[in-house]
Write a structure and sequence with these properties.
Layout (H helix, E strand, L loop, with lengths): L3 E11 L24 H4 L10 H14 L2 E2 L2 E2 L2 E4 L9 E4 L6 E2 L2 E5 L5 E13 L3 E3 L9 E3 L6 E7 L6 H17 L12 E10 L10 E6 L2 H20 L7 E6 L4 E7 L9 E2 L6 E2 L2 H9 L5 H11 L4 H8 L2 H13 L5 H19 L10 H12 L5 H13 L5 H8 L7 H14 L1 H8 L6 H11 L6 H12 L6
Parallel strand pairs: 13-14
Antiparallel strand pairs: 1-11, 1-12, 2-6, 3-17, 4-5, 4-16, 6-8, 7-8, 8-11, 9-10, 12-13, 14-15
Bound molecules: manganese (II) ion.
The site of manganese (II) ion (MN) has 3 residues, from loops.
Length: 485
Amino acid sequence: MSWITTIGLEVHVQLNTKSKLFSSASTTFGAKPNTQVALVDLGLPGTLPVINKQALHHAISLGLALGSTIHTKTRFSRKNYMYPDLPKGYQISQDKYPILTGGKLTSTLQDGSSHTVTLTRAHLEEDAGKSVHEGEAPGISGLDFNRAGMPLIEVVTEPVISTAEQAVAFLKNLRNVVRCLKIGTGNMQEGAFRCDVNLSVRPDIDAPLGTRAELKNLNSFRFIEKAIAYEIERQIDALENGETLVQETRLYNAEEDRTYSMRTKENADDYRFFLDPDLPQINISPTTIDAIKMALPELPWQAQARFENDYQLHRDQASSITQDPGLFDAFVGMVADQPSIPPKLLASWLTGAFAALCNKEGCSIEEAPIGNTQLGELVARVHDETLSTSAAKKVLEALWQQPQNSVDGLIDALGLKQNNDTNAIEPLVKQVVAEHPAQHQDYYNGKEAIFSFFVGKVMRASKGQANPKLVTELLQKLLKEPPTA
Ligand code: MN
């Protein structure tokens, strides 16, 4: 049987704001437990929530980027449930009147094909607090309300995903849009980008959708991929063995690489949603939407097309830049600083030697001691032939250790300036050729492979400073002549 998998995603994206969604408490990550909590976050009687305008504007930017319908009249509802980390007994969320509906996001898969995920809706809601089960007081559980009331936008997709690869491609793309719009950090370790996966299988395309499981606790792309792969197998095995699946919430355990049943899923009705009487309808004016639209940055797929068409970057090179906000900002900065250098050359140093060095040193592009201005200066010295490629790599490594130095200062200090003077190189070439008459004869007889032997000798004689292009030209001219001795 060829089983068909159906996946829908719910992504909770934490929005970058100074204060919480309905209170003035700070949103800074990593503070001591319960130091960033306003009375509203605890739901104390007599306190009233006030909507954070910045969070609303972030939601509108996301909607504009994804082509969603932005609802100019939107409302909050109470989602009622009991849990220790939810002191009000309800979460302020959106039910019937979400801020965004529809929209889509297209991603490129490994084989170069495109996959489009359509969106059902996206709504604003507050985060809950956190139960803490270990730490300073072993055996005692604590509650940390710093996260209570943090602003989230929950993006819900249509069930149009059928493989782990499609799911992860969509999530990486969405996270990149969030980071590009600067509406969230997308930091998965800090829980600022969290994903629940709804997954079911059915025997063929005409069969009704199967019983679904909801996978939670997925905090890395790798785990999402593995959890989906495991769950597809588990459901197919169960059905093939004649078992009946139950609708349930399952947790992924990364160490064992399997999912466990956590609880059978309550129906949406159990939440007894109703409009929150403390929060009146929000009316968004067309002027507000227009202003946000005007301020939108260039989106990743727009930059991708521009880099390929205007700069002739290869698709994969353009995509590695547009899928990483650090590389993107660095590249745009380098192109602006060095308008006379071909962007393709700047891109290949950025995504090549520089990215490799960052990787080796275990830091991100943003954390690197070398900024895009210095990197652009280095590439300019390659372009004007002051540096050979190998000398430029040496300067790059030296610059990493001593970023306070200038590129030109280091080139001088290390004596790596390329020698482009024909009058200085020609005698070296002549001398090397004269010293190796047998090899010269071989080359003259047609053994072309020996050419690099001569290049190596001349480069060594020049202490690595001769321009290899010039050496090649001079050698070609000389070796064409028959050996004299
Ligand atoms: Mn939610």
